[in-house]
Amino acid sequence: MISVVIETFNLAHGDLVPLARSVATLAPRLRAHRAELVITTTGPRIDLAYPARWVEVPADTGYYDHKTSGFDASRGDIVAFLDGDCAPVANWLDAIVAPFAHGAQVVCGATSYPGPLARIANEMDFPYFDPTNRRFAARGTARPADRAVPAIVQNFFANNVAFAREVFAAHPYRPAPMFHGQCQLLALELREAAIEIHHAPGAHVEHAWPATAREFIETRLLRGADCASLLPHIVHAHLEGVRLPDSNGARPLPQLAAMAILGLRGLLSAAKSRTPRELAFVAAVTALDSLGAAAQSIVYERTGVLARPPSGSGRVDAARDEYGACGGGRRSRTRSREVL
Predict the structure, then answer these.
(1) Are 295 and 321 found together in one domain?
(2) Count of alpha carbons within 13 Å of 112, Cβ hemisphere only?
(3) Average pLDDT for residues 249-269, to the nearest whole number?
(4) Same domain membership, residue 328 and residue 274
(5) 236 and 187, same structural domain?
(6) Which of 264, 332, 253 is nearest to 294 (CA)?
(7) Please, is 44 exposed, middle or buried when counting C-beta atoms within 10 Å of its C-beta (0-12, 13-18, 19+)?
(8) Rounded CA gap, 332 and 152, in Å?
(9) What gap in Å lies between CA 30 and CA 312, rounded to an integer?
(10) Average pLDDT of the chain?
(11) CA dist., res. 252 & res. 272, Å (int)
(12) β-sheet bridge partners, residue 106
């Protein structure tokens, strides 16, 4: 059985219209595969074009805990994850599950932004979804001549990925005091376990832009902060024997290194910009991401990231002891209940 898990964490104010559109797009292929559809919600529900199992979670449940709660409620041998604010193509499900027939255990699809800035924005935010990009190909993996053969990539985004059930059960999202970097931590864990991440470009979704300028600024600052948080883990995973200290105010090496990396990315993207609008976008993104990396602790504190229950385990009680000192503020259980 195939299960598709969709979270509603990203759907502000209970607006489930994007979810309804996505399910309507997927419904014919869901029926063809006799797939199970699981949707996590903090309460709101809506009639859909395909029968769904609704899993209710507390209002303060984090993004990754939404996903893990959906996984716990699912029954499929293959579990595919999609975000409620991402718009899939009609054959998304076929494309993302096809590599499992050839032994794949983890498959990520292709994610992109819509609109006139999509080309440069995708270059900055989603480069590892392009199998022709040698910078992000897994070490020792040749670029396939046949695009029907999935490439191997080093990273994925949680909004468009599928796992063999036993793999995700053994390697769930771990709780971590950051915004949305837990999927990168899981990618590093899979690499350590010698589990390859296959890329299926036909499993394409469009990622929604932030709804407001404020949300755009906050998201960019948090992306920069996550870059500084993730850098010590990435360096340790790829450079044996080399360790960066964890980022904090007294030892700012990760922040400085992240700012340098983000600045270099900005220069490379600026060189590829074709219009003044693209160049302005690159400049704004680079400035905000770099500021987020420099002011990592302040950004997390002011946006409330560290005040939320530690997102990433789906079993928050079990994760408390590991990250309790980072959590701060209110914590709550994320025990889910199904609403059929």
Answers:
(1) no
(2) 17
(3) 77
(4) no
(5) no
(6) 253
(7) middle
(8) 38
(9) 27
(10) 81
(11) 31
(12) 163, 197
Average pLDDT of the residues in 135-144:
39
Residue 129 clears pLDDT 90, i.e. is over it:
no
Digit-coded pLDDT (tens) for 172-191: 998 888 888 899 999 999 99
Q: Beta strand pairing status for 36-41 and 53-56?
A: parallel
Report the alpha-carbon distance of residue 308 to residue 178 in Å, rounded: 10
- Average confidence (pLDDT) over 202-229: 92
- Three-state secondary-structure class, residue 281: helix
What confidence tens digit (pLDDT) does each residue in 269-301 have? 888 888 999 999 999 999 999 999 998 889 988
Task: Give the tokens for residue 225.
Answer: 């902060």
CA distance 264 to 282: 11
Q: d(Cα 337, Cα 340) in Å, to the nearest integer? A: 10
How many angstroms from the chain centroid is the CA of residue 145? 28
Asked whether 300 and 227 are in contact (CB, 8 A), the reply is no
Range(s) of the domain holding residue 275: 213-306
Is residue 1's pLDDT more than 50? yes
User: Sign of the CA dihedral 129, 130, 136, 138?
Assistant: positive
Residue 201, SS3? Answer: strand
Residue % of the chain over a pLDDT of 90: 50
Count of C-beta atoms within a 10 Å radius of residue 314: 24
122-131, 151-160, 184-193, 309-318: which has the minimum mean pLDDT?
309-318
Structural domain count, the chain = 2
Give the C-alpha separation, 307 to 161, whole Å: 28
Tokens 């259980």 correspond to what residue? 333
226 and 286 belong to one structural domain: yes
pLDDT of residue 29: 97
C-beta of residue 178 within 8 angstroms of C-beta of residue 326? no
The enclosing domain of 186 has a CATH number of 3.90.550.10
Q: pTM of whole model > 0.85?
A: no
**C-alpha closest to that of 107 among 167, 158, 161:** 161
Residue 322 is predicted with a pLDDT of 29
- Residue 63's region, left for phi above 0, alpha for psi from -120 to 50, else beta, is alpha
Which residues pair with residue 37 across a beta bridge? 4
